[in-house]
Amino acid sequence: MYGNHVGLKDVTLSIDKGEFVFIVGPSGSGKSTFIKLISRELKADEGHIYVGDKDVVRMSNREIPDLRRSIGMVFQNFRLLPNKTVYENVAFAMEVVRSPRRTIKRQVPQILSVMGISDKAKNFPHELSMGEQQRVAIARAVINGPQVLIADEPTGNLDPETAWEIMKLLDLINRRGTTVVMVTHAIDIVNRMNKRAVTIEAGRITGDSKGGLA
Amino acid sequence: MFRGLRYTIRESFVSLFRSKVMTVASVFSITAMLLILGLFFLLTVNVNMATEGVKNQFDTIEVFLLDETTEEDAAIISKSLTSMDQVADVQFISKDQAMAEFRQRFGSNAYLLDGLTTNPLPNSLRVKLSDIQDGELVAEICRNFSGIEDVRYYQSEISKILDVTDVLQKGALIIIAFLIIVSVVVVSNTIKLTVMSREAEIRIMKNVGATNWFIRGPLLLQGILIGCISALIALGVTFFVYREFVATYGSQVAALMTMEMVSPEFMLINLAWIFAALGASIGAFGSIISMRKFLKA
User: In whole angstroms, what is the distance from residue B101 CA to residue B165 CA?
Assistant: First the structure.
């Protein structure tokens, strides 16, 4: 790696379809780099990264949009469009993949209801609480039915109670068949969820345990 | 396909209105540059027309014959001149014809000529050149025939006019090229501001898997729309100002240049094409340049 990105070296990790995996580690350990490599925001210098049966490293630029459509992304700062309503923010992800308008009109209210924010459809992001904004972001990430949901510190800005609500949503999405990879340093959440946890420190994997952190 | 088109069109209009200040700034700068360009265009076209007019008036050499020269001699001279490639046509003008033309030029004052008992005007040959560049050569040949009193050809005047128009045309071309470059830079900068203000949005679009063309489309159309709006404004302003100018000063200019000014309607049609093509391509080019960096990864 180069620039201000933390390097990752000799990392070998396999995540099965339908798994729920935490990536844990101190800040600056390479967690964010890991995510950027998967979504091809960064290109690995060497090695292979497979999402499904596609090698992300050898992929041409033209294949990147398809890759990203198969990955839903959720961020600590939500990354919602401030000048679009909740409904429009979610519908936007479907417009990008050119879904028919009728499909959009049917599916967006459905997912908003699953996320428990149906009554906020016409509100703008700044009118929502942090937890509600993250629910919108999750709705947007899963609306196109991705294989994998990647969440980068999704609870970082939330109080513990709201954070746990979000975790329950992610768990629900996982139980519906989507692989979930969540980067966090909230150790209490990792242990409470009791799922597989991979520890990254200084660009290397230093731990991989089932049922929370050992 | 049509779904994508509708999205592109809607988004470009929305973004046009959402970033009002940026749009107005871009429209203002392209309009300004098109106005200056239009001014030079009007000037060049008019000067070109005037030059052509002057050329047509000065493509004739007048060869005045001595009174002793018979019409047969004149016919021989005429024949040998006609055989030259550089000569388009030779016309014999008799004393009487010359007087008739002279009277016509005097118009209502022609009675002043009634006092003349003899016709003082000589017979002459009017030599029309096929190319004005050969004027001096042909004039020299005419001087060498015997039986000739005088050869009149306005060589120095013509070459002066040609020099001036040449400089004018080249100057206008350089200034127009310069203006085009400046306005591409201006537009690309204003659209870059739009792109930067929408950087978050673009990043989100890429995150959810938008293709580059999906992101580029609305911005490209936005640039083209800005260009077309500017072209429309510039066209309107140029047309009305020019029409007023022709209406007010047209006759004076016509007297000065011995040529009518080019009609505003003719200018309207030509400028419409030039402005639309230039405005749209400046807008498109400007937006492509400004987006390049943002769409790399």
Answer: 31
Give chain B's domain count: 2
Residue ranges making up the domain that contains A214: 1-70+146-214
What distance in Å separates residue B32's CA from the closest CA in chain A?
A: 32
Range of the domain at B94: 59-153
Q: What does the alpha-carbon distance between residue B29 and residue B185 come to, in Å, rounded to a whole number? A: 10
Task: Kindly give the residue spans of alpha helices, DSSP state H, lying in B154-198.
Answer: 155-197
Nearest CA in chain B to A68: B209
> Which residues of chain A make contact with B202, given a CB cutoff of 8 A?
none
Per-residue pLDDT tens over the stretch B226-285: 889 999 999 999 999 998 988 888 777 777 666 677 888 888 888 899 889 988 888 888
Strand A196-201 to strand A20-24: parallel, antiparallel, or no bridges (unpaired)?
parallel
Of B110, B113, B111, B141, the C-alpha closest to B127 is: B141
Asked, for residue A163, whether it belongs to a domain, the answer is yes
Chain A residues close to B211, C-beta within 8 Å? 65
Asked if residue A1 and residue A66 are part of one domain, the reply reads yes
State the ipTM, two decimals. Answer: 0.80
A4 and A62 both lie in a single domain: yes
| One domain, residues B205 and B111 | no
Which helix (H) or strand (E) is B285 found in, with range?
helix B264-292
Inform me whether the C-beta atom of residue A55 falls under 8 Å from chain B C-beta atoms.
Answer: no
Task: Tell me the per-residue pLDDT of B10-30, one tens digit each, with 9 for 90 and over.
Answer: 877 777 776 777 778 888 888
The predicted model scores a pTM of: 0.65
In a domain, residue A75? The reply is: no
Of A90, A115, A145, which residue constitutes the final position of a domain?
A145
